[in-house]
Amino acid sequence: MNYQEYLAPVLEISKKAGNAILEIYQSDDFGARIKSDNSPLTEADLKSHHVIVDGLKALTPEIPVLSEESKGISFEQRNQWNTFWLVDPLDGTKEFIARNDEFTTNIALVHNNKVILGVIYVPVLDTYYFASKDHGAFKQVGTDAAEKISVRTVPVVNNEKHYTIVASRRHGLDKVQELCKKMPHFELASRGSSLKMCLVAEGQADLYPRLAPTSEWDTAAAQIIVEEAGGELIKTDFSEFLYNTKEDLLNPHFYVLGDASENWRELLS
Ligand SMILES: Nc1ncnc2c1ncn2[C@@H]1O[C@H](COP(=O)(O)O)[C@@H](OP(=O)(O)O)[C@H]1O
Ligand SMILES: [Mg+2]
Question: Which of 48, 93, 122, 171 to probe ligand 1 with, by most ligand atoms within 8 A of CB?
Fold first, then answer.
């Protein structure tokens, strides 16, 4: 499977889905309709889902698609899949409702329980983050040339490490704050959706501890982007983070780690 060839068409599909979301997000009656019944969210989610699923089906008719909006597929069936597309058509739904721009579309290709290709699109910024196994991670703004991204080493000021930690706006913040106490100097930033993992991948944050529930479509695209940028996404016991291995689609708690030379095990245990 020459999955590298899928990157360009998947970027295009992401953009099309992002445009469908933006059409609703920027509509004149968005505010009033969100206040009354959240229907713009449902519409945006479903439109994005259909654009992505139709696009992927046309691209690779033989590869099944699992989307947050079509998650009711039994493990008995999913367990037969060696390769499948794993999709979150609108990640950061609460941020979409809050209208703070921090939402993404996530498309990942999973092969033998590991992610081999991932594309995250940020509609409001017209920005893509993408990666494929062994070919590096990239950021692309609009039609500009894609730039290679990588994690950073933790900055040192006066011989002391200064960590930037990124966390959810809404989930598990108390546990993250507890964890931060282990670090002599830290700055805490909040972001919705997969943007947190993109920040680690592009060297703007050092650590994202996720000590609250997520599902497999929330992390898959970001995992390969972080890994190809030189970082890691691992379980809190530092074991490997895998996909499609069980009946439910919930993830274990995890850490996204930047700087590979950092002794994260010692710091976080
Ligand atoms: N109780 C729960 N179980 C599973 N996933 C949850 C959850 N609460 C939140 N999430 C996941 O966390 C994501 C939001 O995380 P964050 O706060 O970091 O942006 C949601 O993505 P969606 O917005 O796609 O639903 C959702 O998938
Ligand atoms: Mg999500």
Answer: 171
